[in-house]
Amino acid sequence: MKILLVNPASTDTFWGLKNSLKFISKKAILPPLGLLTVAAILPANWDKRLVDMATAKLHDRDIFWADYVFISAMAIQAESARGVIERCKKLAKPIVAGGPLFTAAPEDYDDVDHLVLNEAEITLPVFLEELKNGSAKHIYKSDKWTDMQDSPNPLWHLAKKNHYAVMPIQYSRGCPFNCDFCNVTVLFGRNIRTKTAGQILAELESLYSLGWRGPVFFVDDNFIAGRKKLKTEILPALISWMKKRKYPFSFNTQCSVNLADDEQLMRLMAQAGFDCVFIGIETVDEQSLIECNKVQNQDRNLVESVRKIQRFGMEVQGGFILGFDSDKASVFDNLTGFIEKSGIVTAMVGLLNAPRGTRLHQRLRNENRLLKDSSGDNTDFSTNFIPMMGRRELIEGYQKVVGTIYSNKFYYERVLRFLKNYRPLPKSGPGRGFSGFKALVKSIWHLGILSKGRVYYWKLLLWSLAHPKYLDKSIRLAIYGFHFRKVFADCVSPMTNQTP
How far is 456 from 372, CA to CA, in rounded Å? Predict the structure, then answer.
């Protein structure tokens, strides 16, 4: 059996970092971990090929080669996924589809031959058995959750590692919190399920054996949800492995802000090689935190929490949302002030959207405020419901926030503010993937010579040369800033637009 695994394309997004990748000659940030895991579940004697449309074109000859085309996608890939489906149907190739896009709205894809939904470790083997017996059905779904110890080592060799800036790995699924705008618990539940230390080390060893050196992203939605196992098993094992291998990787992940409450955990993560965490801060307005049930962020000094994590050797990237019913006119200046004061350089500020299946989606539907499906891109200046705040006021306030925080002056000053508070652990390693002589030279040309913000770039670079342990971070963050300004350039108002 010949299987073509297709990862559809997506639009240029905040996290796609498309405009930064040219500095390091890469085509995409991450390979599609879900499809690589699906490939490992398929029979070992089947022929498998991967076409990641983020890095390569899908040709008709690829589709002709296959007996079945497997597609996995998220909401932001919906348009491209529909195009792939139409091409496969035109060429009379049967399609097997799964992943968040299809799981959230299977009724939109009745024309797909087989929908294998929810977690593939459970539903895919059932489909494969019935396919073998000639009795495969249209749809497979389950309300059970995978035991992560049954999840296989992804088939990394299917991905062309030199096309990517970062490699993904997954330790856990699920999140104990229940924020009303988030569909993580819809897709993966609230009970935390984890792999063993042996599984994680085996996956890292696979990447190492294939020659990967550089950043590894733990894609967990809340890496620190099961703290006891992390502190007693996983992180000690990672520390030992990384030391033995002389720190071939650097790690980053997603977690909740209560990481700041556990100094032992922060210390162990930093020792294991974690130098960056993404945290969903969402809003600095206490009433809005209550509204969206973001209990882990309530009643705390968020600025101090962020700065404490930075002092333990981890950069904090932040997610922020505008458009809660409780938001007042002051929310825009308050958010801008928080981002600047906290030193969160990579601040993903988006408008509130209601994904299918969430409590927010249900509430807004009951209130007759839903307009359409969410685009899946929360920085595209769209919202799929009628906001309580006037739409024009919301959009103009959003434009002001991103136009300010990603202007050259404010951005570079924030980088310096962060670096002066950041305390990286002294260890060797490959950095975050945006360092090296080539990246430095390209950054000097594009940011130090061609950019309108070159004076701020040189101020940062000269400071970093005087403090060389920060040079890698400085180059990477300067390059990130170039991308962020490009992403928002066509959306911010002319008054605040300061593109390079």
Answer: 42
